[in-house]
Write a structure and sequence with these properties.
By secondary structure, the protein is an alpha/beta fold. It has helices spanning 31-43, 62-72, 87-100, 120-127, 150-167, 183-186, 198-206, 236-248, and strands at 18-24, 50-55, 76-80, 105-108, 133-137, 144-146, 179-182, 213-217, 219-221. 34% of the residues lie in helices and 16% in strands. The N and C termini lie far apart (64 Å).
């Protein structure tokens, strides 16, 4: 009997592990609950992940709480900014730290847990398919929103419909910040936005590098009592900051020669 042929397979990005990155700024009411929930979720996956929390210059007790939790959670990594540099910069810092540690994927979550850690397992399952970009979706495949004011739902749906039309990507929820990206791709993007518009800026630059996309349906919830208020505001300037990247995509993918995230902060 002839021996069976040995099948060689290329290692996937997931084989190098993944990091759940959580930016925090003045989140003392959420910090401990968030770390415990995300740490438990990443520990339950195969392979287990690590948690990278970026403290973006908090002025309350957030940093104190995080330093205490490091002792309890071996998979917790805390990176501290010396001042408030913005949401976008915190994401870049988390991506750099994941890249420095050789991890294959970066998965972004929010500190208020409106992006429920229970969906981390679904993201990891998609990572097994070695997709370049994995986006959570509220608008297809069984996703939805709970406790979100109707006017915000309407604005979000309209904005995403327009973004989908302009980007021409196989994802239904372009503005969603709950997503995973291969680290080697992410650190090549010259991201400069300091606020939430970094989500759309990222999607624009991904046009030059990402080839495959996948979605994870999830239910977005609003912040609960005692969790503070959302820092996202619905203003004309915000809409312009978001949609300008979708409009730019009509010209085609950006032409880049950068190999790492630029030091633009």
């Amino acid at each position: 009997m002839r021996p069976s042929a040995l099948v060689m397979t290329e290692p996937t990005a997931l084989s190098r592990g993944y990091a759940a990155v959580v930016p925090m700024y003045d989140e003392e009411s959420n910090a401990e609950r968030c770390v415990r929930a995300v740490s438990a979720a990443v520990a339950a996956t195969n392979p287990p992940g690590v948690v990278i929390v970026v403290d973006d210059g908090s002025r309350d007790r957030t940093r104190e709480i995080l330093r205490r939790l490091i002792v309890e959670h071996p998979a917790l990594i805390v990176v501290e900014h010396d001042g408030n540099r913005g949401y976008g910069t915190a994401l870049v810092t988390g991506a750099r730290e994941a890249h420095r540690r050789g991890l294959g994927y970066v998965l972004f979550l929010d500190a208020d847990l409106t992006t429920d850690p229970k969906y981390i397992a679904d993201f990891v399952e998609k990572m097994r398919g070695d997709y370049d970009v994995i986006k959570a979706t509220r608008y297809s495949l069984g996703g939805g929103m709970k406790g979100v004011p109707p006017h915000r739902v309407l604005i979000s749906r309209a904005g995403n419909a327009l973004a989908r039309l302009l980007f021409r990507l196989p994802i239904a929820d372009c503005t969603n910040g709950f997503r995973a990206v291969k680290t080697d791709i992410l650190v090549r993007l010259p991201l400069r936005e300091k606020g939430f518009a970094v989500i759309m800026e990222e999607l624009y630059y991904l046009l030059a590098f990402a080839k495959t996309y996948a979605e994870v349906p999830y239910l977005l919830t609003s912040r609960g009592e005692g969790q503070g208020v959302s820092r996202f505001v619905y203003r004309p300037k915000v809409f312009f900051q978001y949609l300008k990247y979708a409009v730019l995509s009509l010209v085609g993918p950006p032409v880049l020669d950068t190999q790492t995230i630029q030091e633009t902060r």
